[in-house]
Fold this sequence. Notes:
single chain; alpha/beta; eight-stranded mixed beta sheet; 18 helices; metal-binding; oxidoreductase; EC 4.2.1.118; dioxygenase
Amino acid sequence: MxxxxxxxxxxxxxxxxxxxxxxxxxxxxxxxxxxxxxxPLPPEEIRARAADLGLSIDLYQPFxxxxxxxxxxxxxxxxxAEHKFRTMERLGAxxxxxxxxxxxxxxxDDELAASQLRLLAERAAGHGIRIAYEALxxxxxxxxxxxxxxxVRLADHPNLGTCLxxxxxxxxxxxxxxxxxxxxxxxxxxxxxxxxxLAMDVLQWSRHYRCFPGxxxxxxxxxxxxxxxxxxxGPLSLEVFNDHFRQAGTARTARDGMRSLIALEDxxxxxxxxxxxxxxxxxxxxxxxxxxxMLAALGFQRTGTHPSKPVELWEQxxxxxxxxxxxxxxxxxxxxxxxxxxxxxxxxxxxxxSPVLPRERAPREARLDAVAAPDGTEIxxxxxxxxxxxxxxxxxxxxxSGEITRIDHVALTQPFHYFDEAExxxxxxxxxxxxESLELPDPYxxxxxxxxxxxxxxxxxxxxxxxxxxRDLAWQHVALACDDVVAVARRLRAEHxxxxxxxxANYYDDLEARHDDVDxxxxxxxxxxxxxxxxxxxxxxTVTVGRVFFELVQRTGGYQGYGAVNAPIRLSVQHAGPH
Length: 579
């Protein structure tokens, strides 16, 4: 299907927006009136620029507070409309969005509203223009899409149809099944936006928290299916009002919007992800000088070195960590994912506008392709051949099996404007399923966090918002699974107590008040605890080195969470500084 986007959805000047929208691969654009009003170029030049970029101008919007008004106001409204029509002729746009009236002067009279909409359509027809009438969720008298359709049907003019907007429909909890009752030829336009599920005034919700499909909690795909079943053949168009998007980079926001529509189409046509990852192949960390000692203390052994890159392989159980000496503070720089079909995973990523990163490879080295996550972390799609690239670094001291069995999850902090983009990236490019979005107390504000996972927890990833209260929390961590975290804590407490994050006694006082069966050894060893209806979770944290720390976790039963209730404790201690 053709794909369009409203200029209000991205930041920048109108000309910058058009260039970014075209570069992202859109077919058309909705021109938001304010973008045109502040542009120094005349409408004719905007029309020419859009044409040169291969963009059609699919809609001009919005025209507000028109219908169901007294006669004197109607005359003024028609004068406004004639001016818009002339502007649209210069712009080369032939479809005008008319929003349902929100003015206190509007009259609750369907017959009057329909007759005035018909008059507007007649005037528009004289200019070769059509009218798409939309029910705003906060409209004074018309705020439901079926009510708007009744007025369009009552007006009965060929140049009058309806505009459907997923936000206005789904934010009110309206049943989208009624969309199939509207003839497809009378659905003149379809605007799409997702949103987080919030309990707030719908106008403020709409103006500040819309996001691209797949980034929120609405069933946008289900709504689109109903519209297509009704016979709609126009474009899928994004209209998103979002404070973060308005401040983010124009090009990457446009590209993220296109990714959302590609993924939406895949959902509509039942295209399954070709290669959902089945596990972690490795996590790659910078600065071996700072981290090597900690890994050794945790029981890892250095088992190999790369012949052409300054990279060491450290292993324990099925947990593999790479230490890269290319420079920079200690931090998580890359993640390798076990893929059932790395080639298919790469092609899928490229189809979603995530190009393969350039990478030098010696002739006999394994092919290992990677794409960049929004925060810059490299994501590798791995078979098994990559391990053959590492040469043994010397004799291994005993078996590689130990207390740690595998990588349980990784947590990545995101720059302030990239959180929604990251959620969409991991959901679509990797095929991970989103879990509940949380806001966790931090000493300096709230930390926004969202977990995502593959089926049965084979791969778990957590994305966190990087800035809290103006502070840059660029902390990342790797969580390592073990079968007996208490035993690990006891050994570390005896051999390397300086590596463990100290937990306040007040935490354990509260824990014992909440649970009367908690092992008292947890207090002594600095182990944190959580439980849900399915199982238990024990975990501990190391101190932070550079930008990275480790978490050791033990899951019992069917526990699928991440100990989020304990995150405020960890954050508070980390803020306090070195220990």
